[in-house]
Amino acid sequence: MIIFAGRSNVGKSTLIFRLTGKKVRRGKRPGVTRKPVEIEWRGKKIVDLPGFGFMSGLPKHVQERIKDEIVHFIEDNADEIELAVLVVDGKAAPEIIERWEKRGEIPIDVEFYQFLRELEIPVVVAVNKVDKVKNVERVVHFLAEKFGVPYSEIPETFVPISAKFGKNLDELRRLMEKKIRS
Ligand SMILES: Nc1nc2c(ncn2[C@@H]2O[C@H](COP(=O)(O)OP(=O)(O)OP(=O)(O)O)[C@@H](O)[C@H]2O)c(=O)[nH]1
User: Fold this and answer.
1) Where are the beta strands (DSSP E) in 2-143?
2) Pocket test for ligand 1, best of 10, 18, 127, 172 (most atoms within 8 A of CB)
3) Closest ligand 1 atom to 6 CA
4) pLDDT tens, per residue, the chain with 182 residues
5) Measured from the CB, is residue 157 less than 6 Å from ligand 1?
């Protein structure tokens, strides 16, 4: 099983469509995927997890519930999960992370990355929407520092992509294949 996780609206559904040609969006409201959506692709199960973090119009307790459901799903399926693709919005993430830190909170992307690693699930971080980013390398290094990824492991952990414009998806595929537990 390969899971796709990330904050709401980072482009998970767009990316899965680009990679597999399959539409995973089921939610009625645009930008909101609620339950884990499973698809079969090349003999593998691909799961689009609900977006976590802030979603406009959703009360805090609902957001917390969604986060708990995601955490439980991952814990329950940890043995089966061969790879997690953590999708972040390369344009929005640095600002969001700094805002959380200023409030003294652990940014949800950081928490999530570390949670996956604690379960020993291999993670590829797809830094999406880089078509909107001026200095991509700076963003990648910023994220690596926040996630606690050593400098030497950056190339095997982070891939800057643009799901919308199909940029660097071959590189992402390559890294995903490399990291999948055999
Ligand atoms: N500029 C830009 N926009 C993108 C890119 N990828 C996705 N988007 C846009 O971001 C928005 C959200 O994309 P979705 O694929 O629906 O995001 P999601 O992460 O599945 O959202 P949830 O259903 O909330 O989990 C859409 O308007 C996409 O067109 C990208 O690479 N660049």
Assistant:
1) 2-6, 37-41, 44-48, 83-89, 123-128
2) 10
3) 19
4) 999 999 988 999 999 999 999 887 655 555 455 788 899 988 899 999 988 876 667 788 888 888 899 999 999 999 999 999 999 999 999 999 999 999 999 999 999 999 999 999 999 999 999 999 999 999 999 999 999 999 999 999 999 999 999 999 999 999 999 999 55
5) no
CA-to-CA distance for 32 and 16, rounded, in angstroms? 15
Per CATH, domain 2-179 is 3.40.50.300: yes
DSSP 30: T
